Amino acid sequence: MKKITITFALFTLVSLAYAQDTQQNQTGWKINSFGLGFGFSGVFVPATISGYEDLKNSSGNPELFVDPSQYDTFNNYSDFGGNVSPKIYIGITPYSKKKGTYRTNRELRIGIGSNFGVRRYFDFYQSESFVVDTFQSVNGNPDIYADSVAQHAASYSENFFDLNVGISYLFKTDAAKRVHLYAGLGAEYGITLSYFVTVEQYESHSLSYYEQGKKPDEESAPYYYYYYGSEYNSTYSSQKTNMKNAAHFVRTFIPMGINFRISNNNSFFKHVNIFSELSPGVEFQIVPNDQTYVNPYFGVALVGFVYRW
């Protein structure tokens, strides 16, 4: 499936690049631009315990996942994911038989690209302590208590790298001007070439010392409230487990952007344009043996370059 997607994406761009007829009155479309873009996307991904269990069951090594019921001291679930998105485009202008000319204020944009980033994220933290010794002062100072402290943290991030093909139909203001605006409708399909969960675990054991009546508040600062003496040791591990199947992404969005032509006179740069674009929409993340997640999606092309002829 992945090879078919890659082959189709490349075949589509190459075919379109050479698909112009020699007679204008028989041509419904013509390729008029080539572009490069690089941006990022933010996605709202509700993270719940049931979602954690789904991620566990869809992974290749579910034994790496902890039991959430054992981590009740401090739990953090991130509801936001994101990815960076390099893309290449070609722009196609439609021909109006009624007007007998090409409609430069319309454009069909076709592209291929990739996304790599994170979707669901889960973090669990647990701390246990008990008194192991008491030091009594002989000069009237407060007693000092020594607690044995055991801490454990585990985090899980859903990572992916996909290849995608997309299409958008754009409506422009006057494209002959140096600056013009545009908006339209778009859709994109992607399949993951790499799809895995990064598992990080941290453990520490130490002694904590505090004066009588001044034990730090564990709830208000769960990570930082202990003073560590010399009796302290910790371990950290990081590994990844691949998901059982590739994930599919279907995104529908509304591209909205601004285009700026670099020069009006230079023979080369009068064809070069810079654009910036927002693409709010909806993402459907289809995970085999799991479910389809509907995620509000917000894409931003920080910078892009287009050559128009």
Verbal overview:
The structure is a single chain. Helices cover 8% and strands 62% of the residues. It is mainly β. The chain has helices at 2-17, 49-58, and strands at residues 29-44, 74-78, 80-96, 101-102, 106-135, 144-172, 179-211, 228-242, 248-253, 256-261, 272-286, 292-308. Strands 1, 2, 3, 4, 5, 6, 7, 8, 9, 10, 11 and 12 form a 12-stranded antiparallel β-sheet that branches. The protein starts with a helix and ends with a strand. 23% of the residues are buried. It has 2 helices and 12 strands; from the N terminus they run αβαβββββββββββ. The chain has one domain. Mean pLDDT is 84; it is low at 16-26 and 219-230. The chain is elongated.
User: Could you say how many structural domains there are in total?
Assistant: 1
Radius of gyration: 28 Å
Largest beta-sheet characterization: 12 strands, antiparallel
On the 0 to 100 scale, the average pLDDT is 84
Oligomer: single chain
User: How would you sum up the global shape?
Assistant: elongated
Strand percentage lies at: over 45%
Report the count of strand segments. 12
H and E order: HEHEEEEEEEEEEE
Q: Estimate percent helicity.
A: under 10%
Q: For the terminal residues, how far apart are their CA atoms?
A: 36 Å
Uncertain residue segments: 16-26, 219-230
Class derived from helix and strand content: mainly beta
How many H/I helices?
A: 2
Short descriptors:
309 residues; 12 strands; elongated; mainly beta
